[in-house]
Design a protein that fits this description.
- The chain folds into three domains: 3-46 and 125-199 and 292-355, FAD/NAD(P)-binding domain; 93-119 and 203-288, D-Amino Acid Oxidase, Chain A, domain 2; 359-422.
- Helix content is 27%, strand content 26%.
- It has eleven helices and 21 strands.
- It has helices spanning 12-23, 126-139, 187-191, 259-266, 316-335, 340-351, 359-366, 369-372, 375-385, 392-398, 408-422, and strands at 3-8, 28-32, 47-48, 68-70, 76-80, 85-89, 93-96, 100-102, 108-110, 121-124, 143-146, 149-155, 160-166, 169-180, 205-213, 223-226, 237-241, 246-253, 280-289, 299-300, 303-305.
- Strands 1, 2, 11, 12, 13, 14, 20 and 21 form an eight-stranded mixed sheet that branches. A seven-stranded mixed sheet has the order 9-8-16-17-18-15-19. A three-stranded antiparallel sheet has the order 3-10-7.
- Helix 1 packs parallel to helix 2, helix 1 (12-23) runs parallel beside helix 5 and helix 5 (316-335) runs antiparallel to helix 6 (340-351).
- The longest helix has 20 residues, at 316-335.
- The chain is globular and about 70 Å long.
- The protein starts with a strand and ends with a helix.
- The protein binds flavin-adenine dinucleotide.
- Residues 8-14, 31-34, 42-47, 149-150, 181-184, 187, 207, 209, 250, 287, 307-309, 314-318, 320 line the site of flavin-adenine dinucleotide.
Length: 426
Amino acid sequence: MKYDLIVCGAGPGGLMAAKTAAEDGLKVRLIERKKDITEINRTCCQVFYIAYKGATKSGIYCFREPVNLEVGKEKNRFIFPTLGFSVDYRGPIRPYYQYPHLSPSGYIIDRYPKHNDNPVTFFFQKEAFLSGLLSEAEKAGVDIVTEIMALGAENTPDGVRVTVQTRSGEQTMEARKAIAADGIESQIVDGLGLNQNRQVLSSRLKGIGYVMEGVETNLPASFLLVSVPSLNRYANILIYTLAGGQIMISTATFDEASPSTALDEFMKLPRYAPWFKNSRVLRKTAYGNFIRTPVKEPVAGNVLIVGDAGATIETLIQGAVACGYLGVKAIEKELNGQNGYREYIAWWQQAFEFNDPTYFSTVNRYFSLNSLCSDEEVDYLYKSLTDKVGVPAVLIEQNLELFKNDRPELYEKLWQKQKQFVNEPE
Ligand SMILES: Cc1cc2nc3c(=O)[nH]c(=O)nc-3n(C[C@H](O)[C@H](O)[C@H](O)COP(=O)(O)OP(=O)(O)OC[C@H]3O[C@@H](n4cnc5c(N)ncnc54)[C@H](O)[C@@H]3O)c2cc1C
């Protein structure tokens, strides 16, 4: 066969897989539907989580492998110490030392202690990251074709046949193995029947992100999370500091409510309008998908699943990169007659928190404040807890008794919600 491996999708997972396989001597074709691989259309806040202390059952960060950053003069390196590989990155980096959560009127609960010299995490630029991986893939000899859409993959006695849509019509390509790295609504995963056992947990999620300049928050570079139930009963408003004085503001909704209306109205709230007085939207990105439970076993015959193609609560950039690397190592073992798939499946199941049976109810537990409370109630709760440090939803649970006498109705509402989870195993 002409190719050992066809990789479908050139996001962080697919690029890492293609580059790794070609560097190891495999003949690789990489196909991508976009014209420019480094262009980012799907919203991404571009935070690279290092030794992230929130990596617990919070439903916010669900990749369990440690990742370190080595800062150099000419290039930086992301190191995956337990997996034994690293990725070079030449692009801007911005450390975040804080993670403030804000209420509608601006009461703040800090997630981490204020005077902490270690960054809790940091911003990096996804375009620059993809561009680095792309040039390494090119250097290693990957045959890259863009503006081609993978429609499906079918196992054959000798390997796999991938059907693609090109400008001149449908074509098929064959290889010994294939990787589906075509992102959150993977056509390949669907075509292989792997979505049949996945539970759909939500209506369609619609999200939007604005890249802006001229925003003045007067807060240190960080990510900010603002809870405003009257604007969005499902999610918070996220604000991330990017490179070069830009910020990204983003939110998502599940119902008819428009996420862009929520953002536009947020920028008019009395407490926050001054931040946006001299601001300008430079670019908009969007996303939309259903929330599904993950693919349990991310391998089907000669097709291996990498990154978000197997999960809708994201694998994150670093999780997708780790999948790309380990997926190729698994395929190489299979090509040598060893059982690499078993190891990859076992790793997938323990490396991502979304595979835990209680993961989605934990997310529900910690994300229910906006659906339960009014703006005034969120203000009251944040004001009462403003001297404490931690995740607001967790602090509220831990300090519920504080509100019992002062606000019995609010207490009752929160307690009823909390009770649903009390008997669940941790
Ligand atoms: C609002 C939001 C904020 C986020 N913030 C962060 C963050 O701060 N940090 C972080 O690490 N992660 C973040 N993520 C998640 C992160 O973007 C993803 O987890 C990551 O990009 C997954 O990489 P991937 O390679 O698996 O998939 P993707 O990045 O989705 O790449 C898939 C690729 O496949 C291509 N493709 C799709 N279908 C086809 C097809 N049929 N044929 C050919 N090509 C196809 C796509 O064009 C794309 O290039 C965020 C996500 C969202 C929605």
